[in-house]
Amino acid sequence: MNKLQIFKNAEFGEIRIVEVESNPYAVGSDVAKSLEYSIPHKAVRDHCRGVLTWNVPHPQSPEKEQEVLVIPEGDIYRLIVKAADQSRNPVIKEKAERFERWIFDEVLPSIRKYDMYATEELLNDPDLAIKAFTALKEERARRIKAESTNAILMHVNKTYTATEIAKELGFKSATSLNNDLANRKIQFKQNETWVLYSKYADKGYVEIKQDVLDNGRVIYHRRWTQIGREFLVKMYQRKAS
Prior knowledge:
Blueprint: E1 5-9, E2 13-20, E3 23-27, H1 28-34, H2 40-47, E4 52-57, E5 65-71, H3 73-86, H4 90-112, H5 119-124, H6 126-153, E6 159-160, H7 162-169, H8 174-183, E7 187-190, E8 193-196, H9 198-201, E9 206-212, E10 218-225, H10 226-240
Antiparallel strand pairs: 1-2, 2-3, 3-5, 4-5, 6-10, 7-8, 9-10
């Protein structure tokens, strides 16, 4: 796949795919539109981590180029997960699931398919055979990595209480863990709520939700994200070693 490929679907429209260093990247706005994000470019910037700027043929004037944002497989999955998670409309959730199946069961496999029909040619040209099988081996490795990434992303929205993480890390209680994190200058207490220092605040380690009681009092609930959990686990593993 050396140039732009366009995949069409009656339900999802068109998805443009380009090759970046031998890996398939999708035009981010195409994916976001298919998943019915109200502001596609904002969804790409908010939820994707591997965004690249790329030039593709202009839809109306193929002789001209258009600058677009393209995203790797992991970010395609992030947009799918976020669409299903954030929408309260069950129709959108079901559509996100169908889009996932189309992309990962049809579009990407069709890009990766290696045709090995030239058996005689391969047998007569050892160098060609080595190149072909090396490419196949690399492709299989990429596929395994992608499947592993998808499995991880399936749990990207899971959050954890301090009690759960404290137990995993061997602390006696959430209080012990929170006090230790305070001593390490990772968090501090403000209005009875633990808050991360600015160095860690924008990394997506925690989610804070608020509840308003009948008497008007506001209560804040903080939970660690999967990213935050991994940060803590790695930090304490380094300490132990």
